[in-house]
Amino acid sequence: MLPALETFILDFRALYNEDISDAERFERGRPFLKTLLADKRLKQCAEKWPARNDPDQGYFENLLFYEDPDYGFVINALIKEPGESTPIHDHGEVLTVYGVFIGGEIVKRFRRVDFGAGENGAPGTDNGIELELVGENAVTPGYIDFVPPGEIHVEHNGQHRTIGLILRNGNVGDHLQSWYNKELGTRVRRYGPKQIPYQLA
Ligand SMILES: [Fe+2]
Q: Tens digits of per-residue pLDDT, 143-152?
């Protein structure tokens, strides 16, 4: 395994010896991800990583570098070709820490403001949805975004390849998430990107 990845996994696993929430654990994992984002060998590897999304067909892939057998945390990459965007989406109950590795993009965040949003963990309705834009950031390599469960967002890539290196507390391929249509005020529930096991050596 790539030494930088091995170090990351050892360091991050050690955080499970502490009696803390995942939110705190993943916050404390940030500097480890920062180190990984700066690794030159990993950057060389990334030149070969395939980008095979088909946004028009609603098809997205994540490279799956590691899934922890004991604690379930996952390390992914999402590779976008120039001009590619994600749908407006959330990650369901999965907590995500998203590091920009190569390229750069615009990340917008939304808040649901209709009365069907659901309170106290209720799932809310699938239509009559009104989304309000609450943030817009141009992000560049080294930037790390903390995305709590259920937070609604979209990524629009610039005119270059962009790679996100992603740490999650579960496998999004096995968890339902929501994809939103802002104009129609609807959403669909579906599993996250297809997980493609990829050996980082
Ligand atoms: Fe996302």
A: 999 999 999 9
| Phi and psi, residue 79, nearest 5° | -110, 125
Nearest by Cα to 66 from 3, 143, 150, 9: 9
Tell me the C-alpha to C-alpha distance, in Å, between residue 9 and each of 3, 5, 66, 120, 162: 10, 6, 9, 34, 24
How remote is the CA of residue 154 from the centroid of ligand 1, in Å?
7
What CATH number does the domain containing 93 carry?
Answer: 2.60.120.10
Give the residue numbers spanning the domain of 60. 3-197
Query: Measured between alpha carbons, how far is 108 from 189 in angstroms, rounded to an integer?
Result: 20
**pTM, rounded to two decimals:** 0.94
Separation of CA 130 and ligand 1 centre (Å): 19
Number of domains in the chain: 1
Kind and range of the H or E run holding 46? helix 40-46
